């Protein structure tokens, strides 16, 4: 979508995400939330005592983890979703400029050029995708204990537990950034953002 030359930028709206993309995000977020909450109930004694029903919590945690990749796989049927995956997978010179500005804590829009997704969003998407696959693999080893030797299960448990903690911290940062940007939340909620926000935050975005 392009902005009309005779229309004030702030008065326009720009389509950012399709319905399928929003569905993928919401469903993945819900499953991830279930995984995090059930993991907390399994590892934090106070929550474990409060919730009880450990066997049920374990079962919910396992099936939510197995289902985690399903929304993304289903989303591949959407052309818009596949297009955004390609954009997230491309790292250009402007992304390096954005990262240098972020490291310097330079918050000026002119110092942080970005396409539809900025460098931080691309790094987060790649990291969380890889972390999810590792969690799925180690979780399956822990689930089907009779299929692997003890050393594998011990190593899988170590990686799973510490990566889970890291994911929790990264997700907290992700949620914090979303809470600080109402327009970005609007884009994920309704699919559209203001033209002024798009021009300021993503000036290289070809709409």
Q: Strand order within the widest sheet? A: 1-2
Average pLDDT metric: 90
Sheet-strand content, in percent, reads: under 5%
Number of strands: 2
Query: What best-fitting shape do the alpha-carbon axes yield?
Result: elongated
Please render the helix and strand layout as text:
Elements: E1 13-15, H1 19-43, H2 45-51, H3 54-67, H4 70-75, H5 79-88, H6 93-103, H7 119-143, H8 150-179, H9 182-190, E2 192-194, H10 195-201
Antiparallel strand pairs: 1-2
Helix pairs in contact: 1-2, 1-3, 7-8
Attribute tags:
elongated; two-stranded antiparallel ribbon; disordered N terminus
Short overview:
The protein has 207 residues and is mainly α.
Can you put this structure into words, describing what you see?
There is one protein chain. 70% of the residues lie in helices and 3% in strands. Helix 1 packs across helix 2, helix 1 runs antiparallel to helix 3 and helix 7 packs antiparallel against helix 8. By secondary structure, the protein is mainly α. A two-stranded antiparallel ribbon has the order 1-2. 16% of the residues are buried.
């Amino acid at each position: 979508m392009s902005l009309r030359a005779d229309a004030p930028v702030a008065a326009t709206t720009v389509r950012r995400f399709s319905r399928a993309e929003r569905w993928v995000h919401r469903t993945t977020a819900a499953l991830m939330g279930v995984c995090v909450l059930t993991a907390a109930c399994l590892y934090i004694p106070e929550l474990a005592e409060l919730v009880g029903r450990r066997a049920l919590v374990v079962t919910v945690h396992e099936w939510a983890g197995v289902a985690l990749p399903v929304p993304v796989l289903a989303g591949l049927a959407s052309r818009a979703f596949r297009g955004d995956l390609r954009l997230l997978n491309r790292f250009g010179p402007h992304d390096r400029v954005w990262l240098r500005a972020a490291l310097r804590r330079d918050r000026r829009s002119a110092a942080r050029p970005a396409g539809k997704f900025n460098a931080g969003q691309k790094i987060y998407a790649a990291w969380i995708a890889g972390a999810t696959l590792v969690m799925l693999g180690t979780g399956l080893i822990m689930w089907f204990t009779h299929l692997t030797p003890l050393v594998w299960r011990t190593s899988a448990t170590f990686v799973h537990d510490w990566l889970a903690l890291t994911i929790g911290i990264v997700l907290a940062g992700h949620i914090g950034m979303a809470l600080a940007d109402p327009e970005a939340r609007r884009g994920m909620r309704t699919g559209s953002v203001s033209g002024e926000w798009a021009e300021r935050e993503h000036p290289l975005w070809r709409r």
